[in-house]
Amino acid sequence: EVQLVQSGAEVKKPGESLKISCKGSGYSFTSYWIGWVRQMPGKGLEWMGIIYPGDSDTRYSPSFQGQVTISADKSISTAYLQWSSLKASDTAMYYCARLVHSSSWYLDYWGQGTLVTVSS
Amino acid sequence: QSALTQPASVSGSPGQSITISCTGTSSDVGGYNYVSWYQQHPGKAPKLMIYDVSNRPSGVSNRFSGSKSGNTASLTISGLQAEDEADYYCSSYTSSREVFGGGTKLTVL
């Protein structure tokens, strides 16, 4: 069974750093891209970027380039999303999802989400 | 402003059919057959309902169908059921990334 399990909710202060995780299981982690999606409170889905754990090839949405860093450790089948200096506007639910990209393009399995709250 | 345009809300009675539109450009919806639709219930993660314009993943009811004409994709739900009440998001491939619609809230009356 394919599963993506994300790390737990975080409460941080502005200016702090944060790294959240997404652990894949039940499939070849190095053969699929992993995408990250933001959902701000009461708002829609926003594509942040993707990483291919096989070689760590990473692509960012222009809106998030320079704002976050996406990485992966294939030895433990885990992808990461990190911030060096959080802002209140980073408060949101963050989802990871597996991207099917071979002659297709869609997110077929999603993590349960990680709620990040940034408040002074 | 979202890259893809969806109606903010649609509604229908149990048993009826509804259609949600998703309008993009020739750079996304119109340029590729890589449109997908996601269902999201409150407090839950999104769930894939349609991929590659009109394909249903295993386990998704055949009451859900997708289509595309030009720069506009559509999701049709037939035989509406109470459990279909949720937010629906379209998305499309464009330039090595995915763009989402703003979402449509479906209310089952």
Give your account of this protein's structure.
- The complex is a heterodimer of chains A (about 120) and B (about 110).
- Helix content of chain A is about 0%, strand content about 55%.
- In chain A, the strands form 2 sheets. In chain A, strands 2, 4, 5, 6, 9, 10 and 11 form a 7-stranded mixed sheet that branches. In chain A, strands 1-3-8-7 form a 4-stranded antiparallel sheet, with no helix packed on it.
- Chain A is globular and about 45 Å long.
- Chain A has about 120 residues and is an all-beta fold.
- Chain B has about 110 residues and is mainly β.
- In chain B, about 0% of the residues lie in helices and about 45% in strands.
- Chain B contains no helices and 9 strands.
- Classes of the chains: A mainly beta (about 120), B mainly beta (about 110).
- The interface of A and B includes residues 45, 47, 104 and 108 of A.
Tell me the layout of helices and strands.
The complex is a heterodimer of chains A (120) and B (109).
Chain A: E1 3-6, E2 10-12, E3 18-25, E4 33-39, E5 45-52, E6 57-60, E7 69-73, E8 78-83, E9 92-100, E10 106-110, E11 114-118
Parallel strand pairs in A: 2-11
Antiparallel strand pairs in A: 1-3, 3-8, 4-5, 4-9, 5-6, 7-8, 9-10, 9-11
Chain B: E1 9-12, E2 18-23, E3 35-40, E4 47-50, E5 64-69, E6 72-77, E7 86-94, E8 97-100, E9 104-108
Parallel strand pairs in B: 1-9
Antiparallel strand pairs in B: 2-6, 3-4, 3-7, 5-6, 7-8, 7-9
Properties at a glance:
heterodimer; A: 120 residues; mainly beta; 7-stranded mixed beta sheet; 4-stranded antiparallel beta sheet; 11 strands; B: 109 residues; 6-stranded mixed beta sheet; 9 strands; globular
Low-pLDDT ranges of chain B: none
Helix content of chain B: under 10%
Biggest interchain interface, per-side counts: A-B, 22 and 24 residues
Query: What proportion strand of chain B?
Result: over 45%
Shape of chain A: globular
Largest sheet of chain B: 6 strands, mixed
Number of strands of chain A: 11
How much helix, percentage-wise, in residues of chain A? under 10%
Q: Which class of secondary structure composition applies to the elements of chain A? A: mainly beta
User: How would you sum up the global shape of chain B?
Assistant: globular
